[in-house]
Design goal:
The complex is a heterodimer. Chain A is α/β, with parallel strands linked by helices. Helix content of chain A is 26%, strand content 18%. In chain A, the strands form four sheets. Chain A has a five-stranded mixed beta sheet with strand order 7-8-11-10-9, covered by helices on one side. A four-stranded parallel beta sheet of chain A has the order 1-2-4-6. Chain A has a two-stranded antiparallel sheet with strand order 3-5. In chain A, helix 3 crosses helix 6. Chain B has 16 helices and eight strands. In chain B, the strands form three sheets. In chain B, strands 1-2-3 form a three-stranded antiparallel beta sheet. Chain B has a three-stranded antiparallel beta sheet with strand order 6-7-8. Chain B has a two-stranded antiparallel ribbon with strand order 4-5. The mean pLDDT of chain B is 87. The chains are: A alpha/beta, B mainly alpha.
C-alpha cells in the first residue's frame, strides 16, 4: 500500500471518502435472473432507489456495486467474475433472492452456482423475489456498514431448536412414489367428440404411418418409423401444417429407447390452427440418431439443438455442433434418466 | 458498386479460446478474411436479462446473428422430474415472474386435462382476471424495457408507475406481488371478496387514465416512431415459417390467438377482439401489445361484472369451500393417468406449451416439457435483425420484449 492509498484510507480526508462512497453506490446492470423485475421496481417511480444514491449504470468500468439478482448459472458465473474484476476498487456485492443465497427453488439443479463461491458477498437479501423495500433496506445496510465498519443483520431470527424428548419416533418419509419400471405410452387413445379430427385421421392414414391415434380433442399422435420421419413431415407440410411448436425427447431406459416427438401445428390454415399433431418416432438409446426436420420446418432448429444438449440425440442434417444452451462445464446429457440429482432430505434436526 | 476483394493478412485474436464462443474457429477466420466484423453484444449489457448475440456486420449492416442463450438456464425440466406434481406449480412460474399466472395456468390445465377435472365457473372467471392482470403487467414491463433500450428514461418510469397498481391488485387478490402460485388443480386457492373486486374495477379506469399520458409521452412521441417504424420487419410468410408466437405473430398479420383458437377458462364468455397489425415492424409489434392492454382491461371489467357465485374449488379435490390448511393432504398424492397431455396457453409474450408425460403409477412427473414463448420466437427475432443497421439492434431487441430467463427456463 503506497502512501497515497494510506492517506485516502486513514488520513484526514478519510471520512470524506467514506461519505462519498456511501452515497454513490452505483450498481452495474447485471440482471442475472427473474429478480430483475423487482430491482426495476425498486429503481422506478414507485420506490425511487435513486434517493439513497444508488442508480443502475450500464458499464462495469464506472460502477462500484453489483446486485446479483437471483440465480447464477454456470455460464453466468464466469460473466459475474469478469464483471466484478473489471470494476474499480472499492467494490461491493449484495445478493438478492433465495436462488443466490442457497439455490432456492432450484437448489438441486445441475446448472446452478452459488454466487458467494464466485465473488465475495457483503449481504444477502432473502425472498423469492424480495420486495423492493427489502432490496432498498439491503442497500441501506451496506451504507451503514461503510459508515461504521460493522455489518449487522437487519432481521432478528428466533433461535428454534427441537427440544429433547420431543423428537417424533416415526420420521417423515419422502412423499414421492416413483415407479420402478415405468411404462410410457405417448399415444393413448381417447374417445372424443371431434368430427374434424376423425376426418383428418382418415387423410393421414393414407400416408405411410405406423399408427394414427386421437389422444384428446385437437391432439393427434402419429407414429412413424425413423426412416419415414422426413417423408411424413413433407406430407404434413403439404396438408397445411407449417411450424413446429415443440421438439421433445423422452428417455425410456427400461425399454432402451428414446421417443423423439415433434409437435406440429399450423398458422396459415384456419381449420388446422387448434390442431397439434404429435409426430413421433422411437430410436434405440445406444445409437441415438434421428433425421433433422430443421430444413422443412426452420422453427424446429433451436429446439433440436437444445435436445442435443439435453439428451445427446444427434439430429442428422442440423449443422450445429457443440453446446447451445448449456455451459461448457455442465455435466453431459443431464436430462437422461441415469443422471441423478441430489435428493431432498425430509428429516430436519 | 463493384467489390474488390483484398487479401489482408489478418489473424483472429489469440484470446479467442477464453471467450468461449459457441461458433467454430473457422467461422471467425472466414469473417476476418472477408473484411467483416464479429461484434459480441453481451452477456453483460444494459438490458433485461442476459444473453450474448454474436453479430456479424459488414460496415454497419448486420449480415447474420448467432444467439448464445443459456445464461439463465436453471434446469427447470430436470427439476420437474424430481418433484411431486404440486411442487412443480411454483417451479413453472419462475421463467417469467411478471407473467406468473399465465405460466401457472398452462401447467395446471395440463394436469386438469389429464384428470378430466372440471373447474367451477367462479374459479374460471377469477383465473381469467389473474391471467389478464399478468398480461397487462408484462406488456407494461416490456414497454418500459423498450424505453430504456431507446434511452427514454421517462418512458421507463411511466409503465412502472402503472405496474405498481397491477402489483397492488395482485397483492390484494393473492397476497404477493409476483409469484402467487394461486392457481391449483381444480380451481384456485382462495376466494376473492367483493371489496377487492370493486377496488380492481375502479383500478382498471385508473390504469386506463395513466396509459393516456403514457401514450402522449412515449407511444405517440415522434422520436420513438422514428426509431421503431420500418425497423426489423418480419413479413407474414417469415413469421409463419420461423414459428413466431403471440403479439409478434399478430403484428405480422396472422390472426392467431390461443384464447380464440382454443378457448379456455372464461375467454369464450367475454367479448373481446384479436389485435392484428399488418406491417410486422418494431413499431407495430409495440402497438399490438399496447392495444392488447386495452382489450385485457375490457376482459377484466366484464369478468368482474359477470362473476358468478359459487365454489372456487372442485368438490372432488376438497369438500370445504376453500383448500386452506389441507392443500398438501389433498393434492400431494396426485397420480395422473398413463399418457401424454399437451396444453397450449396464451401467455403475455405468446403461446406457452406444456407437455406432461405420466407413467400412471408415480406421483412424480415422468417428463415435463416446457416451451416458453421467448424460446419460440428467438429464431424469428434473429431473422428480423438481418439487413438492419447495428444501431437498430437495441430497438428490435426491445420491440420483441425478449426476456432471457423466460426463454432459457
Amino acid at each position: 500500500m503506497d502512501d497515497f492509498t494510506k492517506f485516502i484510507h486513514s488520513g484526514k480526508l478519510a471520512p470524506l471518502k467514506k461519505w462519498g462512497t456511501k452515497w454513490s453506490l452505483w450498481p452495474v446492470h447485471l440482471v442475472t435472473a427473474c429478480c430483475g423485475a423487482e430491482l426495476a421496481h425498486a429503481f422506478a417511480s414507485g420506490y425511487d432507489g435513486e434517493r439513497i444514491g444508488a442508480l443502475n449504470y450500464g458499464i462495469a468500468r464506472q460502477t462500484n456495486f453489483i446486485i446479483v439478482e437471483g440465480a447464477i448459472t454456470r455460464k453466468m458465473a464466469r460473466v459475474l467474475r469478469i464483471t466484478w474484476e473489471q470494476m474499480p476498487d472499492p467494490k461491493f456485492v449484495i445478493v438478492m433472492g433465495a436462488c443466490g443465497l442457497n439455490g432456492g427453488i432450484f437448489w438441486n439443479g445441475y446448472n446452478l452456482v452459488k454466487p458467494s463461491e464466485v465473488v465475495p458477498v457483503e449481504f444477502f437479501i432473502p425472498g423469492c423475489p424480495p420486495t423492493p423495500e427489502a432490496l432498498l433496506r439491503g442497500i441501506r445496510q451496506l451504507q451503514k456498514k461503510l459508515e461504521t465498519g460493522e455489518a449487522e443483520s437487519s432481521v432478528d431470527f428466533y433461535d428454534l431448536r427441537l427440544q429433547k424428548g420431543k423428537i417424533p419416533k416415526m420420521l417423515p418419509k419422502s412423499p414421492k412414489r416413483i415407479s420402478e419400471n415405468p411404462l410410457i405410452i405417448v399415444n393413448r387413445a381417447k374417445e372424443v367428440d371431434w368430427a374434424f379430427g376423425k376426418e383428418l385421421c382418415e387423410k393421414l392414414k393414407a400416408l405411410k404411418l405406423e399408427s394414427v391415434v386421437i389422444t384428446a380433442k385437437n391432439r393427434i399422435a402419429v407414429k412413424v418409423s425413423e426412416s419415414n420421419l422426413k417423408e411424413t413431415a413433407i406430407e404434413l407440410k403439404k396438408l397445411g401444417f407449417d411450424h413446429v411448436k415443440s421438439v421433445n425427447v423422452i428417455d425410456v431406459p427400461a425399454e432402451n429407447k428414446f421417443i423423439v416427438e415433434y409437435h406440429i401445428s399450423s398458422y396459415s390454415n384456419k381449420d388446422l390452427m387448434p390442431v397439434i399433431v404429435n409426430l413421433f418416432t422411437e430410436i434405440p438409446r445406444k445409437e441415438a440418431k434421428v433425421s433433422s426436420l430443421a430444413d422443412i420446418f426452420p422453427s424446429a432448429d433451436y429446439m433440436e439443438r437444445e435436445m442435443h444438449d439435453f439428451f445427446g440425440v444427434e439430429f442428422k442434417g442440423n449443422p450445429w455442433k457443440g453446446k447451445f444452451l448449456l455451459a461448457p462445464d455442465t455435466p453431459e446429457f443431464p436430462l437422461r434418466k441415469d443422471f441423478k440429482l441430489q435428493e431432498e432430505i425430509y428429516v430436519g434436526d | 458498386m463493384k467489390e474488390i476483394p483484398i487479401e489482408v493478412p489478418v489473424e483472429p485474436p489469440k484470446e479467442l479460446e477464453s471467450l468461449f464462443l459457441p461458433i467454430p474457429k473457422e467461422y471467425v477466420e472466414e469473417v476476418y478474411k472477408k473484411d467483416e466484423f464479429l461484434i459480441l453484444v453481451g452477456p453483460q449489457h444494459p438490458g433485461s436479462g442476459h444473453m450474448r448475440l454474436i453479430v456479424r456486420v459488414k460496415g454497419d449492416i448486420i449480415q447474420e446473428v448467432i444467439p448464445d442463450p443459456g445464461y439463465v438456464h436453471r434446469s427447470m425440466e430436470k427439476l420437474a422430474e424430481n418433484r411431486l406434481y404440486i411442487q412443480n406449480i411454483p417451479l413453472v412460474e419462475r421463467p417469467a415472474i411478471m407473467d406468473s399466472a399465465n405460466l401457472n395456468l398452462g401447467y395446471v390445465r395440463a394436469i386438469e386435462s389429464a384428470l378430466d377435472l372440471e373447474v367451477p365457473e367462479r374459479a374460471k372467471y377469477l383465473r381469467t382476471i389473474l391471467a389478464e392482470l399478468c398480461r397487462i403487467g408484462t406488456h407494461l414491463y416490456d414497454a418500459a424495457i423498450l424505453a430504456v433500450f431507446l434511452g427514454h428514461t421517462t418512458g421507463f418510469m411511466y409503465p412502472f408507475g402503472i405496474r405498481e397498481l397491477i402489483c397492488e391488485a395482485l397483492v390484494r387478490m393473492t397476497g404477493v406481488r409476483f409469484t402467487s402460485s394461486f392457481i391449483i388443480p381444480g380451481g384456485i386457492r382462495r376466494d376473492v371478496d367483493k371489496a377487492t373486486l370493486d377496488w380492481l374495477y375502479s383500478a382498471t379506469f385508473a390504469i386506463e387514465k395513466r396509459l393516456k399520458s403514457f401514450e402522449r409521452i412515449f407511444i405517440r412521441n415522434p422520436t420513438v416512431i422514428a426509431r421503431l417504424k420500418d425497423v426489423g420487419v418480419l413479413s407474414k410468410q417469415e413469421a409463419i415459417e420461423f414459428g413466431v408466437v403471440g403479439p409478434f405473430l399478430r403484428a405480422s398479420g396472422v390472426e392467431y390467438d390461443v384464447r380464440k383458437v382454443e378457448p379456455y377458462e372464461a375467454y369464450d364468455n367475454v367479448d373481446w377482439e384479436i389485435v392484428v397489425a399488418d406491417e410486422g415492424d418494431s413499431y407495430s409489434r409495440f402497438l399490438v401489445r399496447v392495444n392488447e392492454v386495452a382489450q385485457s382491461l375490457r376482459i377484466i371489467r366484464q369478468c368482474i361484472a359477470d362473476l358468478p357465485q359459487g365454489r372456487v374449488i372442485n368438490e372432488q379435490i376438497c369438500d370445504s369451500p376453500e383448500i386452506r390448511g389441507e392443500f398438501f393432504d389433498r393434492l400431494a398424492d396426485l397420480v395422473l393417468p398413463l399418457g401424454e397431455f399437451t396444453t397450449l396457453t396464451e401467455a403475455a409474450r405468446g403461446s406457452v406449451i406444456y407437455t406432461l408425460v405420466s407413467d400412471g403409477e408415480s406421483n412424480v412427473t415422468y417428463r415435463l416439457r416446457i416451451v416458453t414463448p421467448g424460446w419460440l420466437y428467438l429464431r424469428g427475432f434473429m431473422e428480423s435483425l438481418k439487413g438492419e443497421r447495428l444501431a437498430d439492434l437495441q430497438a428490435i431487441y426491445g420491440s420483441f420484449g425478449y426476456f432471457p430467463p423466460e426463454a432459457d427456463r
